[in-house]
Amino acid sequence: MLRGFYTAASGMLTMQRQQEALANNIANANTPGYKADQASIRAFPEMLMYQMGSENIPTKQSKNLPVQNPIGSMNTGVYVQEYVPNYVQGSLRETGVTTDLALIDGVFPDETGSIFFTVQNENGEARYTRNGNFTVDGQGNLVTTQGYYVLDQAGNPIQTDGMEFTVTPEGQLQIGAQNIQLGIAYAANANELEKEGNGLFNGEAGPVPAGVTYNVQQGYLEQSNVDATQSMTQMMESYRLFEMNQRVLKAYDESLGKAVSEIGRIG
């Protein structure tokens, strides 16, 4: 009975964590470049159940030998192993703002590969983002809306000197007579990157290798790839599963209460 109690409880916790991921996705449905999180649900290892018994051997000593009759396997619960971002390209929205940039995925030799803008966080460390909602600060640096420096290919902040600039599809900023290559990074396995908030990713990424193609679109923003309708449907499904596990848990609790109060009184 206690095993079923904990199995139902694990189902409730799993649905709660899935609800949290879905709620966060819906909250960021209008965040440029946001990648929806998907809850990876796994089952605990199955247990092979046996019926314990004994078999009488008709001998002079009348010995009993222990026997085990297999009943079958039983699952011991579920859990959310991790949140995996969905790196599918979001739709593009035209803004007409020259500092807004959108990355358009091209050909990647790795199925799990993805490209990112490189920025510098408040600690001076390189981070990666798909949010191209940039602006120019008071010192003429190209920055994110959070104030993080946008980096060039050499890892330096991009200085515009407050001048107007154009961006080629290859990611080159043309500022006057200068051509500055945007710091576009490629992660061969984007699933290994870690979300840090503010649209930033941390992990292993490097220069774009040969065979990887992409485009940079100026005056556009990549929208979130969250499907709000689908997320709401999934929230309703997980809520119903939560309630089902809750009812099972309540039934186990009532059975345990009877076992403690009534069975003890009968004895």
TrEMBL record:
Keywords: Bacterial flagellum, Cell projection, Cilium, Flagellum. The keyword Transit peptide does not apply. Residues 217-260 form the Flagellar basal-body/hook protein C-terminal domain. It holds the Pfam family Flg_bb_rod. PANTHER family: FLAGELLAR BASAL-BODY ROD PROTEIN FLGG (PTHR30435:SF19), FLAGELLAR PROTEIN (PTHR30435). It is found in: Bacterial flagellum basal body. The keyword Transmembrane helix does not apply. Belongs to the flagella basal body rod proteins family. PROSITE patterns: FLAGELLA_BB_ROD. Residues 5-35 form the Flagellar basal body rod protein N-terminal domain. The lineage of its organism: Bacteria, Bacillati, Bacillota, Bacilli, Bacillales. It comes from the Bacteria. SUPFAM superfamilies: Flagellar hook protein flgE (SSF117143). Residues 113-174 form the Flagellar hook protein FlgE/F/G-like D1 domain. This is Flagellar hook-basal body protein. InterPro entries: Flag_bb_rod_N, Flagellar_basal_body_rod_CS, Flagellar_FlgE/F/G, Flg_bb/hook_C_dom, FlgE/F/G-like, LlgE_F_G-like_D1.
